[in-house]
Amino acid sequence: MITAAVVAEYNPFHKGHLYQLEETRQKTGADFFLVIMSGDFVQRGAPAFADKYLRTRMALLAGAHAVIELPAVYALSSAEFFAQGAVSLLEQLHTADYLSFGSESGELSLFEQCAHLLVRKESEVLRSVNEELKKGLSYPAARAKAFSELISQAGPDKAFSPDSYESIFSSPNNILGIEYCKALLAAGSRIRPITIKREGMGYHDIDPTSSDHAFLSASALRKLLTGDPDSCRRHMVQEGYDDMRRELSLYPFVTEEDFSKMLHYRLLCEREKGFTGYLDCTPSLSHKICKNLSLFEGFSSFCHLLKSRELTYTRISRVMMHILLNIRTPDPFRLPFSERTLPAPYARLLGFRQSAAPLLSAIRKNSSIPLISKLADARFLLDEKAFDMLKQDIYCADVYEAARPKAPGAALHNEWKRSPVVIADMDNPSLC
Predict the structure, then answer these.
(1) 3-state secondary structure (DSSP) of residue 68
(2) In degrees, to the nearest 5, what angle opens at C-alpha 170 toward C-alphas 168 and 171?
């Protein structure tokens, strides 16, 4: 039995994601696809367009076999912690043979060599990055420059031409790919990385009318969903698209602005103490939040107000979500990469296909952490620290449910009563 893992947000699932699964199967001969998916909030510091259960169903209908939730503290973190948290979870399941990720580069050797160098020269990279940050560079730019200096010191290397390392540190999926390889390397993992070259629109391309690509970006699809959902049909897997349209008739598309009032209230309550205890919030950013709070008009406008050359919109948006969702800085996050082990003390099952029985059986047999399918069982399966981490995920789901728009008569879901999504194989998934 060969199992390929994918770490994803599926916000929403589209044909580019299906292409990744198909190409991964071609390259690995995978019998099963195990997805580690962000819950109701995603890495760029925003709510997912729809809740995790709809997005799970869309993934299963398209060919994924089982979907496990990535804990919120990792799902809402920078690429390094996002990737390391996901790999930590996968490692403890002892089931995956491959970790497949999409990238703009498509050259696995480049990712692996970058990862080796960054792990080996960690202290030098950190020192150089901090120096560049003081000069006013953003973190991505500072890291790219630090890496280029490492390459120049190392001497000529065909694997690292100026064009190759500049592009690999300037493209979101490439950056995440390096972090997956770093995390696998640091863990001494038996899981083999594989990368599928991204096809279609770029990650940041948001204008669906500017391209004739077969695969739109998730950003472009979300833009279409807010205006002309019918035009999304040809870019999505049919069964998932139909489910999405039904769901959106009851629970419309969710955006950051739906959380504006909740965020404003939270900021007002906390401003006397400041915000430095929250993940990613520096003293200078905390001061800036307090100083400008009287100018708060909405979630995104406040993020733009706080944005600077040193602080990207995404970084600020994540901090706002950390404050809103009460995500404090975990102790392991304070440690250097080489000394850090991120806890992943449970695997919460969001959904599965009936044909995934052998995969789930292997997880239950081999996993060193509990597989949680019923929240009511979690109290008996987890210790206090693990249960606290799970309660954080539940709190995030409750906040999402409280804020998202609802049509008249639409039910208010109770996270404690939600069951995993189950897909029968007769539902005609794309990758049986």
Answers:
(1) strand
(2) 75
For domain 3-104+193-200+216-255+341-427, the CATH class is: alpha beta
Determine if the pTM surpasses 0.85: yes
Distance in angstroms (rounded) separating the CA atoms of residues 138 and 54? 35
Burial of 257 (0-12, 13-18, 19+ CB in 10 A): middle
Question: How buried is residue 15: exposed, middle or buried, by Cβ count under 10 Å (0-12/13-18/19+)?
Answer: buried
Beta strands 371-372 and 347-353, pairing class: parallel
- Which pLDDT tens digit goes with each residue over 139-196? 777 777 777 777 767 654 545 555 556 667 778 899 999 999 999 999 999 999 999 9
Contacts of residue 356, defined as CB under 8 A and 6 or more positions apart, other chains included, come to: 32, 65, 66
Cα–Cα dist 257/241, whole Å:
24
**Which residue has 């999304």 as its token pair?**
232
Residue in 118, 181, 136 with CA at minimum distance from that of residue 336 = 118
Crossing angle between the packed helical segments 172-187 and 108-120, to the nearest 10 degrees: 60
The token pair that represents 44 in the structure block? 């760029």
Residues in the chain: 432
Phi then psi for 116, rounded to 5 degrees?
Answer: -60, -45
CB-CB contact of 225 with 130 (8 Å)? no
Give me the residue spans of the domains in the chain: 3-104+193-200+216-255+341-427, 108-170, 256-327
The pLDDT tens digits for 87-108 are 999 999 999 999 999 998 888 9
